Amino acid sequence: MPDDAATRDDAGMPDWEKRFRAPRVSLPDWAQDAPDRSLFVSNASGTYELYGWDRATGEQRQVTDRPNGTTDGVLSPDGEWIWWFDDTDGDEFGVWKRQPFHGGADEAAVAGLKASYPAGLAIGRDGRTVVVGRSTDEEGSTIHVVRGVGGPVEVYRHPESAGVGDLSHDGSLIAIEHTEHGDAMHSAIRVLRPDGSVVAELDDTKGGTVELGLEVLGFAPVDGDTRLLVGHQRRGRWEPMVWDVASGKETDLALELPGDVSAEWYPDGSALLIAHSFEARSELWRFEPATRALVRLDTPPGSVSGATARPDGSVEFLWSSAAEPPVVRSTSGGVVLDPPGMRSPGSVPVEDVWVEGPGGRIHALVQKPAGATGPLPTVFEIHGGPTWHDSDSFAGGPAAWVDHGYAVVRVNYRGSTGYGREWTDALKHRVGLIELEDIAAVREWAVTSGLADPAKLVLAGGSWGGYLTLLGLGTQPDAWAIGLAAVPVADYVTAYHDEMEALKAMDRTLLGGTPEEVPERFEASSPLTYVDAVKAPVYISAGVNDPRCPIHQIDNYVDRLAARGAVHEVYRYDAGHGSLVVDERIKQVRLELDFAERHLNGLSG
Hints:
The protein is of the alpha+beta class.
């Protein structure tokens, strides 16, 4: 495998490290009634933090400055305040604070509400009405309304997961998503008045064995307009419709686009910005409901990870591909935000592979060093979620492996989004095992096609991908040379009891109950069950403040490895479910590269 020196620039920094250090920005959010005021996230300080941007003057300033970073922030519609969520070292448990747009002291944004996990936030255009979603283990889900100088008033409470969807333009209606029916994968929608009284209900989970989900996409941005844009799954995929919550009328847009479709309103409410995702790539369209005109917007091939329509009719969007780093562009031409500093090197394009699997065709994305021929040491980089998917978008981790001579394979296994509702919902009850069946089918293709060296197969991933890594090492012990698991579920029962309440609800949905109700399913899906069968060297990294994959259940798994002298290394760091510190991210990639180099060296097929 090539040494870092082969890709160093004149400054002596390898390309893979430059990709992490190069300045990055998110898609800027903008204030509805002060569109020159924007909020974005950047790593310019070496940690991902919030930045305010006055477009009229060009001034940009760092808003937050915390040791472990800040990415959860909202700009008030009047542009006067920046709200940000204050947790402790990445534990996701905290309170909302706010700061004047042009600078000043932070203050408690909502007096009278104790610390919690966030469950949505909506700020009224009057600057005085705020809807706050919260979740705690003791209270379940609660939603509070604050109006003027009064204290928070609780308008919703339920043990199951719920959250704030949107607040209407005039502040008279609140849309919430809830899972009172007990299925955390498929939400229903309720519309309330600020006093908590119910205006309307929309629930696709009733009246059948097949449950369908709904999502709030946003109220029409016009005073007195009671139309709510809603995502639905009635034809087996995500699509938008318009629901008038006052009359009950539903208008199905029926856009003839394959794959998943989402939408948001243009600022004047006359058109919809359509985000279309299909087979790991995405594009943008403009749709005018009055004429049903659907016009494709000019975006390059690749992935749009966020987009917003501006008052002048232009659309700003965050775009990247596997080969080209992310950039914020505008349909009016040019780059919206171009941070100073080093430029991120590109990488190699992704190749599409379709493999027949036990549940249908599996889509995998493959990258390999330019000009390389197999068989190559190959990393199966497994995505998290599980309700997520890998796409033709830029990722520093896979690019680093390619720089070091590896092929990288990313598998959109059953459970992934973007391939229809049945594909996403397929993993219920046999959690983890179904995903690994798909990964095994793609692994077989990688070996028989000549791409992968069967003696140098690496199973790797973070979060749910880390969980599948540990489960795969135990259930497929002869298939993998090493495993690299970041922030994984390792002991499913202990993880369930220690994790945040919203994830407990998801686990109950996936497995059909609690560990006490369906112990055999938790046992079958837990990496700890198979830990004694693990043969490959294991590397695990874990955040000590992680509320999603808590540290104690990882310690249980590691103790079992240590008790039988299995080859393993553990790296613990002071953060939550991943780090927002650039140096820490680079350190973790370096540790994984080093672990792979040491344990794959000398192996041959």
